[in-house]
Design goal:
367 residues; alpha/beta; GMP Synthetase, Chain A, domain 3; four-stranded mixed beta sheet; 13 strands; 30% helix; Spore_GerAC-like_C
């Protein structure tokens, strides 16, 4: 009897179906592309809508429907689309917001704030930059392996993020996060490639605006490791004396050490400790001696230190503090910190030194 009463109470609490939209009338936007129309500030919003052809029990053939709309903001563009296309456009399942480089240079997050007001908001979608003709890319019907635009582009992001080589860049982190001391960050960047696109590092943002400066794929991976990525067997590849080495990252430890003197802030050390599994090192040996391993660890350390130093120089040139070092100074050395404007002047000039330590876990390439 108690079960019957409980079931009746649950039924009374459930929302009725009088206000529900029929599923077949829903247009689920998988990708939303953002650009400007012409030389003005009116938004041109592109929608890639997922649909199925030849539907049968258990599935169908995935297909893209491409739409463009204009508006003062995303909400306005969605409303215009609903007036131009039968059905109801829904952003509930939007997996990717793709920004043109031109749009990215004009405080794009200010335009994306409104997505949190959607009744069904897509805050878990990814945010990325495309350095090419956005409309042409999103209008492409099929990509490699007959994938739709959403499955292809989101698939690249998800796979590389799982490998720990790129940042996550979910919209939620930027709209609701609010934890950044400075509005500096790096968004994953796509570039045209063959008949589609490929990942090409990250685009650097300062004060929420795209600087036009990018990190390549290798620099992006190193920046992710420096920023606290978990060891997920990320491949690290390099050359030592003309011989190629390949390792897999098994564990990562990071730390920040701020050095000051009577004259003020003098240096920031970024510590990176890596436990690596050796795959190849260009030497045809089955087992390394302790002396060989020690020498190899030093050479890999020197190689990574040089690469990370160049990556940091790029960040300083763009005045983009993606590691939020200004927050570290303000939080742990408040007497040194003299305001955000002061930090903007200091950041490009301060000596930021990477301290890399490498430990090889296996003594033989195939161990």
């Amino acid at each position: 009897m108690k079960r019957v009463i409980a079931a009746l109470i649950i039924c009374l609490l459930l929302t009725g179906c009088w206000d529900q939209v029929q599923l077949k009338k829903m247009l689920f936007a998988d990708i939303i592309g953002l650009d400007y129309e012409g030389d003005g500030k009116q938004l041109k919003v592109s929608f890639v809508i997922s649909s199925l052809r030849n539907v049968h029990q258990g599935g169908g053939i995935a297909n893209n429907l491409y739409l463009e709309s204009k508006g003062k903001n995303i909400y306005h563009a969605v409303d215009n689309t609903n007036k131009e296309m039968p059905g109801v456009l829904a952003a509930l399942e939007t997996r990717l917001f793709l920004l043109s480089t031109r749009f990215a240079k004009d405080q794009p997050l200010n335009y994306l704030d409104i997505t949190s007001q959607f009744r069904t908001n897509p805050l878990y979608g990814y945010l990325a930059v495309y350095d090419g003709d956005l409309s042409k890319l999103l209008a492409t019907k099929k990509f490699k392996e007959d994938l739709t635009a959403a499955d292809f582009l989101v698939g690249l992001l998800e796979d590389e993020h799982k490998r720990g080589t790129i940042p996550s860049n979910q919209l939620l982190d930027y709209i609701l996060g609010g934890g950044r001391f400075l509005n500096d960050f790096a968004l994953n960047r796509f570039e045209p490639y063959e008949n589609g696109a490929r990942l090409a590092g990250t685009a650097l943002f300062k004060d929420g605006k795209y600087t036009g400066v990018n990190l390549n794929n290798e620099d992006t991976q190193l920046a992710v490791l420096m920023n606290g990525a978990v060891g997920r067997s990320q491949p690290l590849v390099g050359n030592i004396g003309g011989k190629r080495y390949t390792t897999l990252v098994k564990e990562v430890k990071n730390d920040v050490h701020i050095i000051s003197s009577d004259d003020g802030l003098s240096e920031i050390n970024l510590s990176l400790k890596l436990d690596l599994k050796l795959i190849e090192d260009g030497h045809k040996v089955k087992k390394h001696t302790n002396t060989m391993l020690t020498e190899l660890e030093k050479k890999i350390t020197d190689d990574l230190t040089a690469k990370i130093s160049n990556m940091i120089a790029t960040l300083q040139k763009a005045n983009c503090d993606i590691f939020q070092l200004g927050h570290e100074v303000a939080a742990y050395h408040p007497k040194l910190f003299k305001g955000k404007d002061w930090w903007r002047e200091q950041y490009p000039k301060i000596n930021i030194k990477p301290i890399v330590r490498v430990r090889i876990l296996n003594s033989g390439v195939l161990d």
